[in-house]
């Protein structure tokens, strides 16, 4: 255990032994991450910029005169570009969550924690905070010296500037989050007077505050101790999962040597024991000790090691993406792709495909309107002047499209059944809900005492093929 652990005295009894202090809990030590350069670092930058472009930019897009992506909780409508999701459509939310879950399981089984290393919000925001630190305070060595130095005007100025930029960025993320639930243009218009409601204010500072806390201070502690994914990932790993590994057979024994020297003549492996792979690791682990649950798969150690190998004139790949079986020589690394056909991967892909196909098919067959039938409880049945029996219903129609629609209402189930509405066609505005009072009349000789099943047919006036049938009942006398 490290020397930075809290010491809890525990007596260990034994002949000729003194009381011994055993370390149980690790105290936090700040990790000074060294900047890495290389292909994987460029890929990580691309993902950071891409995810933030989507997250920060979506609320500003407009679609049909409204915000393109808006979760309108007050009106219980979710807008996703041209698609409007109503409370009755929340089965699609369940399908989306299932797709995310099985997609994560599938990807983890194939390639480990690439989600953590490249796209996880904690990783993305931590990376941005590290960029801010490096821009304001300098590289790793300068940051170490600055923190070790006594407080001065320069140190105070740099620390204040760094945290000010971090706080501004964090509040920006919180402001954007609220923009997904309250129209962004309304938020911007209210900014000069800060005329926000209590919930809007709460979520701005709540999300922004935790962004600042998690990415600015806790960083790797969130990944190591708070994130459950790190704990159950081992269930989805197997010997054919692509992971970041150190080639111990090639690298050991470690040792320093002069550039250009032959390591075999000195009885050494390719690892020069420079520890740069540890310095660039955002969670502070040594990949040379084997796979550890703290590893987030960011591949910073691969870029760093490859750079060192280039300088030494050695082949790249001492640290690389590979599988446990390939590293042990059970099959060549060129056969890694063929191992995707193993049962676990196939099962995950089949389940994921089934959920996606079912959701897409259901969405494609989704009617552009929904119908709900409510009986008027105040008057179950009455007799008209013509001697017919009449039931009254409230038909609620939801127009799920972005254009106004008109509907025709008819009924079936009893001979000569009649439907009377205030207007021949019921008009519903775009993406709106409205109700129509419908009077249904039936001949008493057919509508005898008791309940009789009937069907309401609601069809679009513009396209009669678009129709919805809803079951109900007619009360006779």
From TrEMBL:
InterPro entries per UniProt: 4Fe4S_Fe-S-bd, 4Fe4S_Fe_S_CS, Cyt_c_oxidase_cbb3_FixG, Electron_Trans/Redox, FixG_C, Helical_ferredxn, Ig-like_fold
Transmembrane portions of the chain: 43-63, 90-110, 164-181, 201-218, 345-365
Highest taxon of the lineage: Bacteria
Keywords, comma-separated and alphabetical: 4Fe-4S, Electron transport, Iron, Iron-sulfur, Membrane, Metal-binding, Transmembrane, Transmembrane helix, Transport
4Fe-4S ferredoxin-type domain mapped to chain residues: 262-290
Name of the protein described by the UniProt record: Cytochrome c oxidase accessory protein CcoG
The organism of origin for this protein: Chromobacterium vaccinii
Gene that produces this protein: ccoG
């Amino acid at each position: 255990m490290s020397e930075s652990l809290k010491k809890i005295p525990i007596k260990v009894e034994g002949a000729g032994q003194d009381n011994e202090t055993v370390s149980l809990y690790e105290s936090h030590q700040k990790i000074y991450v060294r900047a890495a350069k290389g292909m994987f670092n460029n890929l990580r930058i691309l993902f950071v910029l891409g995810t933030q472009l989507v997250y920060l930019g979506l609320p500003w897009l407009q679609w049909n005169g409204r915000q393109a992506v808006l979760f309108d909780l007050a009106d219980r409508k979710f807008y996703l570009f041209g698609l409007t999701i109503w409370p009755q459509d929340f089965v699609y939310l369940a399908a989306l969550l299932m797709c995310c879950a099985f997609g994560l399981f599938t990807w983890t089984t194939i390639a480990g924690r690439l989600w953590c290393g490249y796209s996880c919000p904690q990783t993305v925001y931590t990376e941005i905070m590290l960029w801010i630190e490096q821009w304001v305070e300098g590289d790793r060595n300068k940051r170490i010296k600055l923190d070790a130095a006594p407080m001065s005007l320069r140190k105070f100025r740099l620390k204040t500037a760094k945290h000010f930029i971090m706080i501004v960025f964090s509040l920006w993320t919180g402001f954007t989050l609220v923009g997904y639930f309250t129209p962004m243009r309304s938020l911007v218009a209210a900014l000069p007077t800060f005329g926000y409601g209590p919930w809007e204010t709460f979520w701005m500072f709540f999300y922004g505050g935790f962004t600042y806390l998690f990415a600015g201070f806790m960083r790797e502690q969130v990944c190591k101790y708070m994130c459950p994914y790190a704990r159950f990932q081992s269930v989805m790993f197997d010997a054919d999962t692509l992971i970041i590994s150190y080639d111990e057979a090639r690298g050991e024994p470690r040792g320093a040597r002069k550039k250009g020297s032959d390591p075999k003549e000195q009885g050494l492996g390719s690892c020069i024991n420079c520890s740069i792979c540890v310095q660039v690791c955002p969670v502070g682990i040594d990949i040379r000790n084997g796979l550890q649950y703290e590893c987030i798969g960011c591949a910073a150690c691969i870029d760093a090691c490859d750079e060192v190998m280039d300088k030494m004139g050695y082949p790249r790949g001492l640290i690389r993406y590979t599988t446990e079986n390939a590293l042990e020589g059970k099959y060549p690394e060129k056969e890694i792709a063929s191992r995707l056909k193993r049962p676990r991967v196939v099962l995950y892909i089949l389940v994921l495909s089934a959920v996606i196909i079912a959701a897409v098919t259901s969405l494609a067959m989704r009617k552009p309107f929904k119908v709900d039938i409510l009986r008027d409880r105040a008057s179950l049945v009455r007799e008209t002047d013509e001697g017919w029996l009449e039931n009254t219903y409230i038909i609620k129609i939801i127009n799920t499209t972005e254009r106004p629609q008109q509907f025709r209402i008819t009924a079936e189930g009893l001979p000569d059944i009649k439907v009377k509405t205030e207007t021949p066609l019921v008009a519903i505005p775009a993406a709106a809900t409205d109700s129509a009072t419908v009077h249904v009349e039936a001949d008493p000789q057919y509508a005898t005492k008791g309940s009789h099943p009937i069907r309401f047919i609601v069809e679009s006036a513009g396209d009669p093929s678009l129709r919805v049938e809803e079951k109900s009942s007619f009360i006779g006398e």
